[in-house]
Amino acid sequence: MKLIKILTLNICFLVIACAEKSEEKPEEENTPNETQQAEKEVMLTSAQYDALDIKVDTLTKRMMSGFVEANGHLEVPPQSEATVTPVIGGNVSSIKVIEGDVVEKGSLLAYLSHPDIIKVQTEYINTANRLEYLRKDFARQKKLYEAGVGSGETFQKAESELQSAKGHVKGMEAQLRQLHINPESIRDGDIQQQIPILSPINGAIQKVNIKTGQFVQAQTNMFEIINTHHVHADLMVFEKDVAKVEKGQKVYFNITSQPGKEWEASILSIGKNFEQEPKALHVHAEIKDRTENLVPGMYVRGRIAVEDMRTLAFPVSAIARNADKFFVFSAEREGDAWSFKPIEISTGAQDNEWIEVRFLEEQPADNKYAFNNAYYLMAEMNKGEGGGHHH
Predict the structure, then answer these.
(1) Where would one find coiled-coil regions in this protein (predicted)?
(2) 202 and 172, same structural domain?
(3) Are 46 and 72 in a shared domain?
(4) Residues 145 and 246 grouped into a single domain
């Protein structure tokens, strides 16, 4: 009986202990959450607050000169670039230019020679001579037909052959002109041993892709010429900013390879098709006061000036970046200390020292924020892993 009483008493103690442990468990589960919340806060004493000269104020909308960030490259329009190719195959007999040479439209670049070049000229002479014979034969057959002596069939045949020969001669003359050969000089017996390769535009030689003696097929890329007089900025505007951009707006840009100098341009045209990665439109801007050191392919960082707008904005010093996110800090006085809590934002246009912001979650209108020293507050918040308020 005594043993039974002892066992009963032990069981009672065990049940009570388990019940107490069960009641304490919710408190233990809350502790990590409280620590996590505490980690997202920076506490400063009044002395620290004064020493850092932190500016605290409510947020109001301000008038900003809107800017849209847009990066890209310097480019030239298609009509300012040329690939020079021959219309007939031949051997390069001489090259008259090197890379970097400035040329004008019609300037001599090289000569080609080949038996086929002579052959096409002799064929033209034969065809032109036959045309003269057919003209005379047609005139003779016409007289006979009108006199009632010749047959109508013979006259019609002479007329048909004459028209066919005229078309053949005109076609060959057009071909000779493409080779830069004057048909009239050939009729006088002046056969060209080589043909010139001429520049189709004004510009500078960008590439020479041939060597003396090399055989080049028709349509071979012999030279590349570029005219940088109409170099422009080709910028990419992201989808979210497209509605703000219009033709004629000013663009200010810097070139990575030429730091310290800013160029001005104005938007000429806006593309109509989105690039997918990233999703953005091409915007072409004409550069004011172009200089020769602006070379196509240079990377540019630009800002497009859009209409003035009233928007929520923070000073640059009020925004801190942590990983790939941006934050501002709400500010609240707690006795003699100050509490600062990070609030995630997205950034927009920048006007000098102010940046347009959008809150990811709606904030109370009477919230106060730190207007400077955001990076210091972020560094303090990130110190350690142990939780609790940071001082």
Answers:
(1) none
(2) yes
(3) no
(4) no
Name the region of 296 (left: φ>0; alpha: ψ -120 to 50; beta: rest).
Answer: beta
pLDDT higher at 274 or 199: 199
Going by C-alpha positions, the residue among 84, 73, 67 that lies closest to residue 210 is 84
For the entire predicted model, the pTM comes to 0.59
Task: Please give the Cα distance from 204 to 281 (Å, whole number).
Answer: 30
Q: How far apart are CA 124 and CA 175, in angstroms?
A: 10
Distance, in Å, from the CA atom of 361 to the CA atom of 214, rounded to the nearest integer, reads: 69
pLDDT for residue 270 = 93
Domain count, the chain: 3
pLDDT tens digits for range 72-81 = 999 999 999 9
Same domain, 218 and 236: no
Q: Do residues 222 and 335 both lie within one domain?
A: no
324-336 pLDDT, tens digit each: 899 999 999 999 9
Residue 238 belongs to a domain? yes
| Residue 24 counted as domain residue | no
pLDDT at 88 over 80: yes
Range of the domain at 276: 68-76+231-307
Two tokens, residue 367 = 């919230």
Lowest mean pLDDT among 264-268, 291-295, 311-315: 291-295
**Of 353 and 282, more confident:** 282
Q: Are residues 262 and 349 in the same domain?
A: no
Q: Kindly report, residue by residue over 131-176, the tens digit of the pLDDT.
A: 999 999 999 988 888 888 778 889 899 999 999 999 999 999 999 9
